[in-house]
Write the structure tokens for this entry.
Amino acid sequence: MRLLLAMMKHETNTFSPVVTDLKRFRAWGLHEDAAVVTAYRGTNHPLAAFIDSAEAAHADIVTPVAAEAMPSGLVQKEAYDYLCGRILSALRDQGPFDGAMLDLHGAMVAEPDWDAEGGLLEAMRQIAPDLPIAVTFDMHGNITERVVRNCTVLNCYKSYPHTDMYVTGKACADVFMRALRGEVKPVMSYGALPLLAQTLRMGTADFPMREMQQRTRDEENRPDILLASVFGGFPMADIPQVGLSAIVVADAHQANAEAARDRLLDFAWQHRADFIYQHEPLAQAVARAKTITEQPIVLLDHADNVGSGGTSDSMVVIREVIAQGLTDVAVGAVWDPEAVQLMMKAGVGATLTLDLGGKSDMPSIGAKGEPLRLTGRVRRLSDGEWTVRGPMYTGTHVTTGPTAVFESEGLSIVVTSLHHEPWDAGIFTSVGIDPAHCRYLLLKSRIHYRAGFSPYEKARVTLDGVGVTTSDNSLLSYRSSNRPLYPVHPEAKWPD
Ligand SMILES: [Zn+2]
């Protein structure tokens, strides 16, 4: 048996000003050929499960590329063509293959094709029309009918934070191997709601996504249902097909797949209002945080969440926290390579005044970058290299580039040269900050931080700042959508 395994992942925030080029993929991880297996074997990724399953089946494997970039703006043509080109040329030149297993995201938007994953799968089927293809996706994928039409089996994460990446890959690979052996005959159903669910309301510890994902497990326990997926979707994308969808893989009987899909979509639509975040004025929320007695208290700067394409240099929340006199605050993290260079030049212990952050303009929401002038001390300098020990991306090597800790106004601010969402305590422990002994942990994150910080979190306050991952839909324009979307259009109907 000969199998093609590959990974191509990016969550594209079309409102983000951060450019997604090949350099950005290389900064987080772009591996080719044998280096793919070295980089991903034993990690908590679907690709690691694909490698294990292929090896257990004594298959020859070809691994042309494994690439991921931190979420950001539109993927440039050169990057998309290069990554797809690696996969397509392997398919053309190193086959014939008995199958392909792909670890994709589902919310990649590329310059040449807004449905980037659909484009890749379609191109693969143009080369090899009968090729069985298994795909795993992130729960935040905006999945199209074109994707479903061009693969054989499909599965997505059931947990957010995504601590079940390997498990998702393993379940998908198991069904796929059974299909290759002729033991099952997968058929798929697909359906999408006109529902722009918000990421802040998709955590699987909370209703309604907890219940929603339990229902996918219940479906998988029915006879003849092989895999059931509910995608919350990724709302930070102005594309024709955005929002919540469900896909069910059944054995042989299309009607079973469709019935299961409808049960899942009915539940989601019935609870559509619960997928929408309720706002609280920033000053009021910060004042509330001051009154909480237990600690550490997690403060979420969710409108500038790097893991959804935030610039990580919006200073609005930090400014308010300082204005209200909160102290003993660890901040993870502000992106500002220039400030890091100034601190490196000054050295540990030096006192200096910085115009910190605010380097990115955000034209999509009409916001200008506004640095915050702070005087403080350089507490620590680091190369920003560490390995994830927590439950999400376990074993993955992280680089935040040259990194510094700046102490000012009672805050210890981690300042990085590369974007990174703080979903693991390593963002602090790698620079000598013990999160257990801070009063406040101010994180530019929404839900993923729960993976690494749940053991520390005694209380949480969600802060509405300014940034391109805002949950305020009125700030964003959805011009490209092919239908009215709830809640932007409260009158949106389903079925229509
Ligand atoms: Zn995700």
Notes: The mean pLDDT is 96.
